[in-house]
Structure formats: C-alpha cells, structure tokens
Amino acid sequence: MSAIIRPATLFVAGILGGAGVALAAAATHGGDTHFLGAASTMSLAHAPALLALYAAYDRIRTAPLAAVLLGLGTLIFAGDLIVRHFGSSSLFPMAAPTGGMGMIAGWAMIAIGAFFGMRDAKA
Predict the structure, then answer these.
(1) pLDDT tens-digit profile of 59-75?
(2) Which among 118, 9, 7, 101 is positioned nearest to 62, based on CA atoms?
(3) How far apart are the C-alpha atoms of 63 and 55, rounded to whole Å?
(4) Is pLDDT at 100 greater than 60 in this prediction?
(5) Contact at 8 Å (CB) between 77 and 100?
(6) How many Å is the maximal CA-CA distance in the chain?
(7) SS (H, E, C) the chain
C-alpha cells in the first residue's frame, strides 16, 4: 500500500501547488473571486505539507494516513469551490465540509504521530 501512497503524496503535492498558483491567478482576474481565492489558499497551504510528509514518510509513523487525509480533503474541498465558482451546484452534497474535515483529520494525524515516536530513517 505504501508503494502507492508515497508517490501519490508527491504527485498530489505537485498538483495542488500548481493548481494553487493557477487559481490565484484566476481569482485575481475574474469577477467574484471568493471561491477561487479560498481554493487557492487551501491548495497552496497543503501542497508544502504533503511535500514534507513525503520527505518524512519513512520517519513519521502516521505520515501515510495523514497524507491521504490531507490530500483527499484538500482535493475535495478545493474541487467543490471550483465547481461552485464555474457551475451552479456543488461537487456533491456537503463536499466542502467533508473535505474540510478530512484536512482537519490529516493535521490531527500529524499531531498524533508525535506520540508514536519516530522510526529510524532507512539508509
């Protein structure tokens, strides 16, 4: 499973980082920017967190679960805001709160990792 999660973490970090910049540009040049600005902020905030989890994957015991929760949570949250901006509906009912709870749970998983001790880094 970690053979999938670890590279996916780096991939999602890159997607969120690039999307965050593109969304910031779109928010700057488009009428009502509330949704795009918030999607950009969440993407740009969580891309470096995912990159850090990728880098510390072998040391932080909760990194895989934290990465999944942060990555999916951010994708759902930002995706819902993007769909709301360009369409008249949401991604699915309660998508933004679901994504937000995923992000909160991901950060909680990072904090919980402090109580599990660090693994020895693989050489």
Answers:
(1) 999 999 999 999 999 99
(2) 118
(3) 10
(4) yes
(5) yes
(6) 52
(7) CHHHHHHHHHHHHHHHHHHHHHHHHHHHHCCCCHHHHHHHHHHHHHHHHHHHHHHCCCCECCHHHHHHHHHHHHHHHHHHHHHHHHCCCCCCCCHHHHHHHHHHHHHHHHHHHCCCCECCCCC
Q: Which pLDDT band holds residue 121 (cuts at 50, 70, 90)?
A: low
**Residue type for 110, please?**
I
pTM over 0.85: yes
The domain spans of the chain are 2-113
pLDDT of residue 1: 65
Residue 71's pLDDT is 98
Closest CA to 49 of 73, 76, 22, 79: 73
Q: Specify the amino acid at residue 81.
A: L
Tell me the two tokens of residue 11. 């991939």
- CA 110 to centroid of chain Cα atoms: 13
Give exposure, 27-51, as e/b (b: 16+ Cβ within 10 Å): beeeeebebbbbbbbbbbebbebbb
